[in-house]
Amino acid sequence: MRWTTQTPRLAAGLIALFLVVGGCASEPPEVASMPDFHPTTSVQDIMLSIIDPAADTIWESVATIVSHDGIEERRPTSDEDWEALRIEAVRLVEATNLLLIPGRDVARPGFHSENPGIELEPEEVQELIDQDPEAWRRLVGDLFQASSTILSAVEDRDADRLFDEGGPLDVTCERCHQTYWYPGDTALQQIEAEEARRREAEEQAPSEPTGPSGSIQGQVRLEGDLPGNAVIRMGVDPLCAQLTRDKQMVQEAVLTSRDGSLANVFVRLQGDFPDSSVPDEPVVIDQQDCVFSPRVAGARVGQLVQITNNDPVLHNLNAQTTTTNSFNVSQPIQGMVHEVRLAEEEGMLRIRCDLHRWMTEYIGVVPHPFFAVTDLSGTFTLSGVPPGTHTIQAWHEELGVLTQKVTVEADGVAVADFGYGA
Description:
Elements: H1 7-25, H2 43-61, E1 63-67, E2 70-74, H3 79-99, H4 122-131, H5 133-155, H6 159-180, H7 188-200, E3 214-222, E4 229-230, H8 238-243, E5 266-270, E6 283-288, E7 291-293, E8 296-300, E9 304-309, E10 315-320, E11 328-331, E12 337-341, E13 346-352, E14 360-366, E15 371-373, E16 379-385, E17 388-396, E18 400-408, E19 413-415, E20 418-420
Helix pairs in contact: 2-3, 3-5, 4-5, 5-6
């Protein structure tokens, strides 16, 4: 058929005739009712398979990475880059609609929390949603708004705006997590159960161990290409942005020297040792320019830890643990100090600020004095170690744990070097 200027008029007439004839010939067919929704996946599945990957791709698409080789600015540049981002932004927006379909389970059948006492179990999350469904819809609506803003920035191909809007998206995600994933009070029963034991374990001052001893020295290195660290999105909090206006604050997750020497590695001996007195000096941790300093520290069981807010900004200290070391306090005033004695041994106690998600602190809590944290030289020394063969452990927040055996002789110096693969 050849399309002409008369074709639309002819087509309209044929359609009208068909409707008239069809209406006289028979009754219109009944419209089948819409089937009920039958969700087959859980909220957890949508988070893990759609929302998390899409959000990570968007956050990582615009970033400033600082490394020993210089500064790398990551920006989408080609049509393909922007189209790929648009796909992820669309997924993010539409996933919020999937979350609101009724009848969807919170998690897969049989799933249990990997961190009981810190994270809620699926049935606890479901109970919170059932108690206040409007709060759930409101948080999902906030995610929809933040995602829609991201999609708008992608469609406008505005990289700077995309970077800025990544902050509110992060805050929105974290607000939902704090409501339904790790509210901070889930360890209450464990804390209460341990309270009696903590009261019984009063501080003692045992005598210092006597006898021959040696020391262990070593260096921790990262082998291969050295990764960079992302510049922190301080714009999430205008006060933090103002404090660091002339500074480039970097998330020092993997802090290295150019030769690969690795800082912020917590090194400790494993095993039991003779009792020794706990130092009177406190472990001091600062919150300065909206980051923790130092990022990694060590403390004896029962030693006083002082955490100071040196910023004119509200900070929060939320200890992630299932032991009696738990605390969750706010520091709204500059100069405020929170003091705590960590009463139980703990591999690595993580402390985060609920208000500034990038703020992370790790404290190794050890019942003996044989531990250290590496500096930029990657080196450490453990002194006064009893002679014998010991297991020594190195821990890094992203690279994991390495262990080895080391034999210490009286008045001798044993060497224990560690190398992380790239």
